[in-house]
Amino acid sequence: MEQLDVVQAEPATARGGHAGTRLVTDEAEISRLRGDLVRDARRECRWVTAHDGSTPAVDRAGPAGVRRRGICTRSAIEHDEVGASIARAVANGEEYRLTREQPPTGLLIADDVVLLCLAGAPGAVLVRAPRAVSVLVDYFERLWAGAVPLGDDRDCGTALPAMQSRILRLAAQGLKDESIARVLGLSARSVRRHMEKLAERAGASNRLTLGIAAARLGWI
């Protein structure tokens, strides 16, 4: 992976590490670093959610006037708590974009400092070396350019998000909202909300017309 290669290529220090980089394995220290980086940022905070959920979550109490941009997968926002959190963040001025594929690297970029979380690896790497930071910033910007703004009609393409697809298939089998909720581990309210979104997208007025439209669109 290019960004990891650059971090490892930084000149070694006398302690056997790399100049401008530090491995952090203590979870409490990682949490503290996240908060400190966000609070100390004066220009911009950027973050990416890794496929295993190792996201440097951003403290909403950061200073005003700092641009905040986040990238996550469509599947992540299907979870009620995550979706609600992102909705509140967007209402407070944060920017989000969605990706189809799950990035292998989670990171938080606060101005010129990066906290890097590698999927499957313990801890995180605190990066201050300018060359490595530059590569990681470029990595984020390439992901950002290829992602779709939250709420853009393109974010689902012609296919459905996995959760909505599962809900629709179960509904097509005749299951009621409560039964679908039990099968998928959701609340009945969440299932109804997904069904409403599906009906709106398909231009359907009820479940019968939704089923017809879903078959026509290739959703089931």
TrEMBL record:
<dbReference type="InterPro" id="IPR036388">
    <property type="entry name" value="WH-like_DNA-bd_sf"/>
</dbReference>
<dbReference type="GO" id="GO:0006355">
    <property type="term" value="P:regulation of DNA-templated transcription"/>
</dbReference>
<protein>
    <submittedName>
        <fullName>LuxR family transcriptional regulator</fullName>
    </submittedName>
</protein>
<dbReference type="Pfam" id="PF00196">
    <property type="entry name" value="GerE"/>
</dbReference>
<dbReference type="InterPro" id="IPR016032">
    <property type="entry name" value="Sig_transdc_resp-reg_C-effctor"/>
</dbReference>
<feature type="domain" description="HTH luxR-type">
    <location>
        <begin position="157"/>
        <end position="214"/>
    </location>
</feature>
<dbReference type="InterPro" id="IPR000792">
    <property type="entry name" value="Tscrpt_reg_LuxR_C"/>
</dbReference>
<dbReference type="GO" id="GO:0003677">
    <property type="term" value="F:DNA binding"/>
</dbReference>
